[in-house]
# Entry
Amino acid sequence: MARERFVHVEHIWGTVVSVDIALHRTPHASTDDAIAELVQWLRDVDAVFSTFKSDSVISQLRRGDISEGEVDVGVADVIQRCRRMVALTEGAFDPWAVPGGFDPSGLVKGWAADRAATLLLGHGFKDFMINAGGDIATRGFAEPQTPWVIGLQHPNEPGQIYTTVSLTDGAVATSGLYERGEHIHAEHLHPDHEIMATSATVVGSDCATADALATALLITGKNGLRWIERMPSWSAQVVVDQSVTSIGPAFTQNG
Amino acid sequence: MKRAPLVGLGTVAGIAGVLLLNPSGGSGLATSSGSATSSGSTTGTTTASNTASTSSGSVKSGSATGDSVFVRYGNVQVKVTAKNGKITDVQAVELPNGDGRSQMISQQVESMLRDQALQAQSAKINGVSGATFTSYGYATSLQSALDKLGI
# Structure
């Protein structure tokens, strides 16, 4: 009997990262090597980016033991992306403004999902979904000619979804006050900002950008949707109490 | 830009499967991000297992039990009852129950998932954005039960 689906769930980073590989176009591909490599890489990400590990590169940066010029290409890439997101979000997303020093946690999960997708493509897989604690990168199709369908967590009713988006090659990230308790998410936020939204979802081509934008939109509320207007093919949805505001093609059919 | 009331969007197209697969004292869904307070893994492969009692393509009424899916803290298996193509009940046949607390959480989750499944009528959803926990065991078993029923 042909395998149709391969699912791997990894408990890491204090959350869950799942990899769902559809095998309809690659029925004979071996998943073992790819998953082993991917899991090792997820652990490396934790070792490098965890703000909870005193010997991580990020902790060393925060303490000033090393400078931003002394980091490897992966960390340098994250720093560069963070800089771009500070500019794009007019400072709403600012890892340098986090108390305790540079904290890129608001972008790293999505960045890791993007990198994991590249890793799986390199192993010959065409159709898969990586869900890094709710930040999702997809490639190809869940089933022949059927895109991946992602439910968006309802911000006020835990465990329920309130709408869906369909993705082939893309990413979706959601930030919500419900996620880990109100104050905890705020750790990664600019201390001067007041949080305006209940939940924010961003859909686009890469998960690192989606992740950072979702965090920023949580702070600004729908005012930040003007950033998305300038980004062709990107979409966003902001929930404030009982009101939903959407922009972009991903939400057109669900409006 | 569009505005729509959050309640009554009417486009709930799937189940937001949520499983709190946490042993007491284990890594926290409620802990802050970034730390690998625990790590472990689950791997599963689903196969085309259409082993419902009838061999015909569509069974729109009746009950079917989904595949037992191993997740980190045990197996998840659900039983779906349908009438005329509509889900009328979903019961967890098996949920992880390593200790008292896990069992309590499992029961809470079961009731939540059951409600969602009844509401959403379908597990044809591949993932949930914003959820910080996994849904695979439940969603996978539910899907295989739905497949058997031809829903």
